What does this fold into?
Amino acid sequence: MEILGADGEPVPAGETGEIVASGPHVMPGYWNNPELTARTFRREGRTGALRLHTGDYGRLDADGYLYFAGRRDDMFKRKGIRMSTLEIEAAAMDITGVRTAAVLPPDGDRDLMVFVAGDLPPQVVLKELARRLEPAKVPAECRVLPELPLTQHGKNARDALVALIDGDGAR
It folds into this structure.
Protein backbone atom coordinates (compact mmCIF):
# COMPACT_ATOMS: atom_id res chain seq x y z
CA MET A 1 0.00 0.00 0.00
CA GLU A 2 1.17 3.46 -0.85
CA ILE A 3 -0.37 6.89 -0.52
CA LEU A 4 0.21 8.88 -3.71
CA GLY A 5 -0.25 12.55 -4.43
CA ALA A 6 -1.80 14.02 -7.58
CA ASP A 7 1.62 13.82 -9.24
CA GLY A 8 1.71 10.02 -8.73
CA GLU A 9 4.54 10.24 -6.19
CA PRO A 10 4.37 8.99 -2.59
CA VAL A 11 3.37 11.63 -0.04
CA PRO A 12 4.98 12.02 3.41
CA ALA A 13 3.48 10.29 6.47
CA GLY A 14 0.41 12.13 7.69
CA GLU A 15 -0.44 13.66 4.31
CA THR A 16 -3.64 12.61 2.52
CA GLY A 17 -3.48 11.07 -0.95
CA GLU A 18 -4.90 8.22 -3.01
CA ILE A 19 -4.57 4.71 -1.60
CA VAL A 20 -2.77 2.55 -4.16
CA ALA A 21 -2.10 -1.20 -3.87
CA SER A 22 0.48 -3.26 -5.70
CA GLY A 23 1.88 -6.76 -5.47
CA PRO A 24 1.04 -10.32 -6.46
CA HIS A 25 -2.28 -10.22 -4.59
CA VAL A 26 -3.69 -7.48 -6.85
CA MET A 27 -5.88 -8.71 -9.72
CA PRO A 28 -4.72 -7.79 -13.24
CA GLY A 29 -7.91 -5.92 -14.21
CA TYR A 30 -11.66 -6.05 -14.64
CA TRP A 31 -13.14 -8.91 -16.67
CA ASN A 32 -14.23 -7.72 -20.12
CA ASN A 33 -13.96 -4.06 -19.15
CA PRO A 34 -10.78 -2.64 -20.72
CA GLU A 35 -11.82 1.02 -20.20
CA LEU A 36 -12.28 0.65 -16.44
CA THR A 37 -9.12 -1.48 -16.25
CA ALA A 38 -7.11 1.25 -18.01
CA ARG A 39 -8.39 3.92 -15.59
CA THR A 40 -7.92 1.88 -12.42
CA PHE A 41 -4.82 -0.24 -13.06
CA ARG A 42 -1.71 1.66 -14.04
CA ARG A 43 1.92 0.75 -14.43
CA GLU A 44 4.41 2.35 -12.06
CA GLY A 45 6.93 4.47 -13.96
CA ARG A 46 10.24 3.16 -12.62
CA THR A 47 9.56 -0.56 -12.30
CA GLY A 48 6.52 -1.05 -14.52
CA ALA A 49 4.71 -2.81 -11.65
CA LEU A 50 0.92 -2.90 -11.96
CA ARG A 51 -0.79 -0.76 -9.33
CA LEU A 52 -4.46 -0.61 -8.34
CA HIS A 53 -5.63 2.99 -7.91
CA THR A 54 -8.50 2.41 -5.49
CA GLY A 55 -10.22 5.79 -5.70
CA ASP A 56 -10.03 5.86 -1.90
CA TYR A 57 -8.13 8.56 -0.06
CA GLY A 58 -6.30 8.24 3.20
CA ARG A 59 -3.02 8.73 5.00
CA LEU A 60 -0.38 6.62 6.66
CA ASP A 61 0.91 7.63 10.07
CA ALA A 62 4.57 7.37 11.10
CA ASP A 63 4.00 3.78 12.27
CA GLY A 64 2.47 2.72 8.94
CA TYR A 65 -1.17 2.60 10.09
CA LEU A 66 -3.66 3.48 7.36
CA TYR A 67 -6.43 6.02 8.01
CA PHE A 68 -9.29 6.19 5.51
CA ALA A 69 -10.37 9.74 4.56
CA GLY A 70 -13.02 9.10 1.88
CA ARG A 71 -13.74 8.15 -1.72
CA ARG A 72 -12.65 10.23 -4.72
CA ASP A 73 -16.31 11.22 -5.22
CA ASP A 74 -16.51 12.43 -1.60
CA MET A 75 -13.29 14.46 -1.66
CA PHE A 76 -12.97 18.17 -2.34
CA LYS A 77 -10.66 21.06 -1.53
CA ARG A 78 -11.66 24.08 0.49
CA LYS A 79 -9.33 26.80 1.74
CA GLY A 80 -6.42 24.77 0.38
CA ILE A 81 -7.24 21.68 2.44
CA ARG A 82 -8.40 18.34 1.04
CA MET A 83 -11.42 17.02 2.94
CA SER A 84 -14.23 14.52 2.68
CA THR A 85 -17.97 14.91 2.96
CA LEU A 86 -17.94 11.63 4.91
CA GLU A 87 -15.60 13.03 7.57
CA ILE A 88 -17.80 16.09 8.15
CA GLU A 89 -20.99 13.99 8.15
CA ALA A 90 -19.47 11.63 10.73
CA ALA A 91 -18.51 14.58 12.94
CA ALA A 92 -22.06 15.95 12.69
CA MET A 93 -23.61 12.60 13.58
CA ASP A 94 -21.36 12.50 16.66
CA ILE A 95 -23.34 15.45 18.05
CA THR A 96 -26.05 14.45 20.51
CA GLY A 97 -29.40 15.43 18.99
CA VAL A 98 -28.34 14.89 15.35
CA ARG A 99 -29.97 11.78 13.84
CA THR A 100 -28.35 11.99 10.41
CA ALA A 101 -26.32 14.43 8.33
CA ALA A 102 -25.48 15.24 4.73
CA VAL A 103 -22.83 17.61 3.41
CA LEU A 104 -22.79 19.56 0.16
CA PRO A 105 -19.27 20.58 -0.89
CA PRO A 106 -18.66 24.09 -2.20
CA ASP A 107 -19.95 24.66 -5.72
CA GLY A 108 -19.85 27.96 -7.56
CA ASP A 109 -21.33 30.62 -5.28
CA ARG A 110 -22.41 28.09 -2.63
CA ASP A 111 -20.00 27.48 0.25
CA LEU A 112 -19.71 24.26 2.27
CA MET A 113 -23.09 23.32 3.81
CA VAL A 114 -24.30 20.70 6.23
CA PHE A 115 -27.87 19.48 6.51
CA VAL A 116 -28.95 17.60 9.62
CA ALA A 117 -32.07 15.86 10.81
CA GLY A 118 -32.40 16.60 14.49
CA ASP A 119 -33.72 18.92 17.14
CA LEU A 120 -30.84 21.37 17.50
CA PRO A 121 -30.65 24.94 16.21
CA PRO A 122 -28.22 25.35 13.28
CA GLN A 123 -25.82 27.53 15.26
CA VAL A 124 -25.44 24.80 17.92
CA VAL A 125 -24.56 22.24 15.22
CA LEU A 126 -21.93 24.58 13.74
CA LYS A 127 -20.49 25.33 17.20
CA GLU A 128 -20.21 21.60 17.95
CA LEU A 129 -18.61 20.95 14.56
CA ALA A 130 -16.04 23.67 15.33
CA ARG A 131 -15.06 21.64 18.42
CA ARG A 132 -14.61 18.46 16.33
CA LEU A 133 -13.07 19.66 13.06
CA GLU A 134 -10.26 21.82 11.77
CA PRO A 135 -11.50 25.38 11.08
CA ALA A 136 -11.47 24.97 7.26
CA LYS A 137 -13.69 21.88 7.56
CA VAL A 138 -16.47 23.63 9.49
CA PRO A 139 -19.37 24.34 7.11
CA ALA A 140 -20.35 27.94 6.45
CA GLU A 141 -24.02 27.09 6.88
CA CYS A 142 -26.22 24.49 8.56
CA ARG A 143 -29.83 23.72 7.77
CA VAL A 144 -31.97 21.56 10.04
CA LEU A 145 -34.70 19.44 8.45
CA PRO A 146 -37.22 17.02 9.98
CA GLU A 147 -35.75 14.24 7.78
CA LEU A 148 -33.10 14.17 5.07
CA PRO A 149 -34.12 13.12 1.56
CA LEU A 150 -32.73 9.73 0.53
CA THR A 151 -32.20 7.99 -2.78
CA GLN A 152 -33.97 4.71 -3.48
CA HIS A 153 -30.78 3.01 -2.25
CA GLY A 154 -30.93 4.78 1.12
CA LYS A 155 -28.07 7.22 0.48
CA ASN A 156 -28.24 10.98 0.96
CA ALA A 157 -30.07 12.55 -1.99
CA ARG A 158 -27.70 15.46 -2.57
CA ASP A 159 -29.58 16.52 -5.72
CA ALA A 160 -32.72 16.96 -3.61
CA LEU A 161 -30.75 19.05 -1.11
CA VAL A 162 -29.48 21.29 -3.91
CA ALA A 163 -33.08 21.66 -5.10
CA LEU A 164 -34.09 22.68 -1.56
CA ILE A 165 -31.43 25.41 -1.60
CA ASP A 166 -32.42 26.60 -5.06
CA GLY A 167 -36.08 26.68 -4.01
CA ASP A 168 -35.09 27.87 -0.51
CA GLY A 169 -37.37 25.20 0.97
CA ALA A 170 -35.05 24.34 3.88
CA ARG A 171 -34.82 26.57 6.92
